[in-house]
Known about the structure:
The structure holds 3 protein chains of 3 kinds.
Chain A: E1 9-11, E2 18-20, H1 21-52, H2 61-93, H3 103-125, H4 143-172, H5 182-212, H6 221-255, H7 262-275, H8 292-299, H9 301-327, H10 336-339, H11 346-369, H12 383-412, H13 419-445, H14 468-501, H15 516-527, H16 531-536, H17 541-566, E3 570-571
Chain B: H1 16-42, E1 51-53, H2 56-70, E2 71-75, E3 78-81, E4 88-94, E5 97-99, E6 101-104, E7 110-116, E8 121-126, E9 130-134, E10 138-145, E11 150-156, E12 168-173
Parallel strand pairs in B: 3-6, 4-7, 6-12
Antiparallel strand pairs in B: 1-10, 2-3, 4-5, 7-10, 8-9, 8-11, 11-12
Chain C: H1 5-10, H2 13-18, H3 21-45
Amino acid sequence: MTNxxxxxxxxCGTTGLPVCFDASFxxxxxxxxxxxxxxxxxxxxxxxxxxxxxxxxxLNDVMYYRILTLHGIDMLIFWILFFEVAVLYFxxxxxxxxxxxxxxxxxxxxxxxxxxxxxxxxxxxxxxxxVLMTSYPPLMAHPLFYLGIILVAVGVLVxxxxxxxxxxxARRDKTYEGSMPLVTFGALAAAIIAVFTLLHGATALIPTFxxxxxxxxxxxxxxxxxxxxxxxxxxxxxxxxAMVAIWYFLGAxxxxxxxxxxxxxxxxxxxxxxxxxxxxxxxxLVDPGLSxxxxxxxxxxxxxxxxxxxxxxxxxVPASMEVAxxxxxxxxGMFDWLVHAPWKDPGFSSVALSMIIFGFLGGITxxxxxxxxxxxxxxxxxxxxxxxxxxxxxxxxxxxxGLTYYVVPLIFQREFYMKGLLRWQPYIxxxxxxxxxxxxxxxxxxxxxxxxxxxxxxxxxxxxGFDSAAHMMLGVLGIGSIVAFLGLLIFILLTVAAVxxxxxxxxxxxxxxxxxxxxxKNRETYxxxxxxxxxxxxxxxxxxxxxxxxxxxxxxxxxxxxxxLTDVWFVR
Amino acid sequence: MSLHPPPKDxxxxxxxPERLWIGVGLIWCLVMFIAMPYAHFKGKQNxxxxxxxxxxxxxxxxxxxxxxxxxxxxxxxxxxxxxxPGGDAYLVGRMxxxxxxxxxxxxxxxxVHISSTxxxxxxxxLPMNMNFQVLPGYDHVLTLTPTSxxxxxxxxxxxxxxGHHLMTGRIIVD
Amino acid sequence: xxxxxxxxxxxxxLQRLMDNPWLLLVLGVVIPTLSYTVWxxxxxxxxxxxxxx
Lengths: 572, 174, 53
């Protein structure tokens, strides 16, 4: 039973899914604002990459710290939150066959987020927020710096209300039967984590705002770190859930995959919901005042159960693709299914590359660096950005780009120009990010600090510096950042061109990234529930091989780090 | 059916390759989890977060007192202080230096008290690459035993204003 | 066709949990708040004064 108001929805010609006009407007608005933040953050990124490359050292000291603040906030907070809000609008309407709960609430959310993002950006560019994204007291920024972020946080909370309310009315109006689709469940996980995230963000930033206004005393430095990181890290876990939901979504659309076992996939999201926020503790592992017990329990996400969840998704998503591919006839040997996957479809390649980068690089380094003792040789070094650029950028942002390749034609109903070039974009971007992150990680393992303008320490009373090998790694960082920026620019410019100037697809059928025959086969495979499908679900030799290779890499990297730790001075 | 509500009977226990992978993954997770308390008791490098509430002025006074009683030299105008072996040493991070220079003996255990009298700082000892957070109001105590001798650089890796990249220090071990 | 109460009772407890977004929301906020925030807050607040020997 539908609850769409007459004339307020349409059916998508490619997926068959309903599109609510109100939700569609907010998807588009949030996606556009998100991409604007991505562009600002991206321009900041190349300037920073060319500054950390010590041989180039582009920006001066003041501008480096300023642009770094801009980069962190526009990327890690604004870009991803805007895009995720767009994803949430989609998942609670199109996938639940429901209208959006309230257009008015959608507008309130959009306006708050827009004003907030603009406000903070202006403050930073005016030099009134030279405090970096984390804005740790006693560093103090202009009150409007904090207020902008608070408004964005409140705006997202309002959008979350709309999301939960839409779920409520969908169930009330019985717009779907049984349990919600897996992708919506993933979005729900993201939304729940976002509630935790933003409530903590408000708790950290409101007293900091009132302090900057001179109304209240300075928040305690340790207390602020504890509460702020319950915004900072879980914001990235919201990304993780959204990214995995998109993996399932695009897996279905581009290969006809469906989860082998809904219980397993949902169970993994459940583990995220219950435990993933604990690991904000990663940032406080070498902090004073927090005990080893607190650090060990929280950094482990409760005995690494949330990591198990990631290992599970890292298996179920490719496994579901392997089954679909084998059913379509690519069943030869171990990896024929992978070789014949739709690598030319940027929706698929983005997701596949996102999984590889997030799994092999991001996840492994994250868990390892977040080990209480290993953190001693990693905290505040470039190893940390080396890790998170592989998760937030190579993982989440790349998956978001993949989704955009379908959102623009299907929601914006506009065709891309230069589709040939766009098929290459995920690869260009991936190579850049991987090379850059490796440069960061290796430099960081020499001790090169993050968030630091001059690792030659020119002018310091007591000289300090790094080996030339570390500087070479900073050069690798710089070169990687150039390639990544190129990949980013291709994506942004062609997306903007399509959204504003692309050929309208309202009257014509979209050509798609794969042939009509291939897409028809995908739909057919996705809908199969016959015995042949049930039998085929057990042949996932290729995926099993890949995940065991991942596990091996994990074990080696993990113990190599323990060994490296034992070479330093004794400390407790 | 990722995009559509699942069939009514979707709730089934994992089987086959999924069960195998979940089992193996769980074992690895538990290994990683046990590693930390194991290292806490048996390992020589830990971050226990031992810390006390301290007033900034109080801490600076204690640092100055140790400089007055234990000074053994100077480098580029910064005093070199030799704390008693097995005893307490005091180090302050402030915009923009680590003060004073500590002279330690290899193989000896020291209780090194680190704090800040202004903003947050990041204690980073090179080339070993040992990193700890330093907060104003917190007397962060590291029970440290140098296992190598020589001159070691301290840098700051927590942004502390425009002089952040000028902030360095030294620990000398013989 | 909609879920009867009897249907509900036949569902596994884990499935009932996963099908209940409101319970998930409460648990997802309360559990980490207690484990990470409240516990951490208590530890910071119970720091003893420095003796600086």
